[in-house]
Amino acid sequence: MRTEQLEYIAAVTRLGSLRRAAEELHLSQPALSETVRNLERELGVDLLERKRSGARMSAEGRELLPHIINVLDAVDRLRGAAGEQHRISRMVRVGTVNAATVPLLIPTVQGFRATHPLTQVEVVGAQQSEIHRALSEGGFDLGLVNHLDGDDLPADFETTELLRGRPVLCVRPDSPLAALDTVSAADLLDEREPLIAMRSGYVMHRYIHRLLEGRAPAVSYSTDGAEMGKLMVAEGLGATVLPDFSVVGDPLERRGAITYRPLADATTQVLLMLQRRRADSVPRAAHDLHEAFVRSAGELGGRLSRRP
């Protein structure tokens, strides 16, 4: 067994394709495929499921992936201790729903980078179902997802609650709805302000459908994630409903381009969760980034509690 065989498996898993992995590794696809098959024969396990759409980690491969990553991390530590100047850096991949991104993720990654300068952090925006699938298959190390209070949590993942917030209406400061102390479902249904909704598959789409009891506003837009929703609000296209932790501290909110108003619904809470696949061992960089998220969430939660 050679170290590069394990690196090739990690690359195929990360990229989801033998072809893309071969391109990144500067190998021919047949050569990469044969190297992986040699490792599978040596281990007596089919590590990959090969389909026309690409290669994915098999169930057996997913069980072995944490051990493969640990071996690679151990090799990196050995090379670092030996003074190798071109130490291979590891990558941590984070899947995030957009409603969790800016106020929490950016400070966390900045702080992590200061202590892990050789570790690359790849941030991928995705819907919750896509994040769960990638966590299960080893494509993501960590996942940031939203849940409504009372939702069932998947048993396959370790889940840490980072933030607990309320849905709020995100509006421009000059919006007619910004003049209200609280915003009701009836206010969202009238024609004073178009409603920018999240597409189906997002927690806030489900929340709006429940809040409005299936009724649709007269004029509305839909978009793919909170970040585009906030930009549309800033440009005057309408208002959108988001968790307060997605709005407070956002660069657009700090510059005064957007603001927020509480909803009359005082019972619903939105939870921001950090999830990872259950495993006997976790790569050190992924563990450290997990802890960095927990610390940053504590700081952001304190700021949220002081806002009106």
According to DSSP, the number of beta strands is: 12
Helix content: 40-55%
How far apart the termini lie comes to 60 Å
- Percent strand equals 15-25%
User: Tell me about the biggest sheet?
Assistant: 5 strands, mixed
Q: Please work out how many helical segments DSSP would assign.
A: 12
Gyration radius from CA atoms, angstroms = 22 Å
Average pLDDT number: 84
As laid out across the biggest beta sheet, the strand order is 4-3-5-12-6
Structural class: alpha/beta
Key traits:
308 residues, alpha/beta, 5-stranded mixed beta sheet, elongated
Task: Give the helix/strand layout.
Elements: H1 3-15, H2 18-25, H3 29-43, E1 48-51, E2 54-57, H4 59-81, E3 91-96, H5 101-115, E4 120-125, H6 128-137, E5 142-148, E6 157-165, E7 167-171, H7 185-189, E8 195-198, H8 203-211, E9 220-223, H9 226-234, E10 239-243, H10 244-247, H11 251-254, E11 259-262, E12 270-277, H12 284-306
Helix pairs in contact: 1-2, 1-3, 1-4, 2-3, 5-12
Descriptive notes:
The longest helix has 23 residues, at 59-81. The chain has a five-stranded mixed β-sheet, sandwiched between helices. Strands 9-8-10-7-11 form a five-stranded mixed β-sheet. The N and C termini lie far apart (60 Å). The chain contains twelve helices and twelve strands. A hairpin with a 2-residue loop joins β1 and β2 (54-57). It has helices at 3-15, 18-25, 29-43, 59-81, 101-115, 128-137, 185-189, 203-211, 226-234, 244-247, 251-254, 284-306; strands at residues 48-51, 54-57, 91-96, 120-125, 142-148, 157-165, 167-171, 195-198, 220-223, 239-243, 259-262, 270-277. 45% of the residues lie in helices and 21% in strands.
